[in-house]
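Customer escalation, tier 2.

The customer says the design service returned an amino acid string that "doesn't look like it belongs to this structure." They asked us to rerun it and document both sides in this ticket. The original structure tokens are below, unchanged.
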């Protein structure tokens, strides 16, 4: 493989990794909102995760 192919491959790996991190952060925020938000029970709101 030429140097240009390695460069393109590296950029694609970084781009895919960034997208994965972004969606993981969004998913974590959504799960926390559902578990600790206005629709959760009092016990869930007092849990260690929600504090």
């Amino acid at each position: 493989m030429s140097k240009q192919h390695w460069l393109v491959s590296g950029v694609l790996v970084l781009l895919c990794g960034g997208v994965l991190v972004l969606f993981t952060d969004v998913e974590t925020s959504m799960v926390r909102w559902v578990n600790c938000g206005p629709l959760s029970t009092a016990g869930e709101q007092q849990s260690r995760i929600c504090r």
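Tier 2 assessment: The sequence is consistent with the input. Helices lie at 3-36, 42-45. The mean pLDDT is 86. Sent an explanation to the customer and offered a walkthrough call.
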